[in-house]
Amino acid sequence: MYRFLMAALLLCTGGALQAQQPQQEDAKTFARDIQQPGVQIFDVRTAAEYNTGHLPNALQADYTNKPEFNERVKYLDKQKPVYIYCLSGGRSTKAAQWMRENGFSKVVELENGVSAWKQAGLQLEGVNVKKTQLTMDAYNKGIAKGVVLTDVGAEWCPPCKQLEPVLKTFLQSHQQVKLMKVDGGNDTDVMKAIGAKGLPTLIVYKNGKEVWRKQGVATAEELAAAVK
Q1: Residue in 73, 82, 96, 157 annotated catalytic
Q2: Where is the domain boundary, 86, 120, 154?
Q3: Which of 82, 102, 177, 223 has a CA between 20 and 30 Å from the CA of residue 27?
Q4: pTM confidence score
C-alpha cells in the first residue's frame, strides 16, 4: 500500500511538473497556432513598442511595469491558451513563467519574439499607422449637452475587452446616453487633460459637468446608477 501511494504521488507530482515546463514555438508554428479559436495572444512589450507593429489580435501589458501587468493579466482566462511574445523573448519568458506559476493552464512563448517573426517573413499589424489625435475642442463639444459616457480604452487592453459587452448592453438599454470614445493608445493629449491615468477609465458627464468616474471595469448596474 505504501509503495502504491508513493508511486501515485510521484506520478501526480511528475505530471504537475511536466505541465509547468516552458513551451516555445518557432515563428511559423506560432503563426499557425494563434489562428485556433479561443486562444489569447499577449504582447508584453511597452505600449510604444506595440504601436510600432504587433501580432494580429494581440492584447498588451508591459511586463516591466508591474502594476500595469498585474492589473491587466487578471482579465485573461486562465483556462484558455495564452500565446505570449515580446521583442526577442526575454520578457515573455519571465512573464510566461510567472503565469504558469499563477494558474494559467497553457502558456506558449514565441521563440526569439518579434525579431524571429520578422525574420520568418511574417507581417505585423499596425505598422506605420498614424491616427490623428482627438482634440480637446472636439472632446468638449462632444460632452457639452445631455448625458455622455466617456470610455477611455483600447482594443489591445485586456480589461477594456472585458468591458465591451457591458457597454454594449448598457447603451442598448439607455439610449439617451451618448458614448464618447477616447483611444487610450492615441489620444494622449485628451487623456492628460481629463486625468485618465489608466485603462479603462469611464466618466459620466451631464451637460458638460463630470458627475461620476471609475478606473477599471464597471458593471451595468454601476453605469445605470451613474446616469440617473
Answers
A1: 157
A2: 120
A3: 102
A4: 0.83
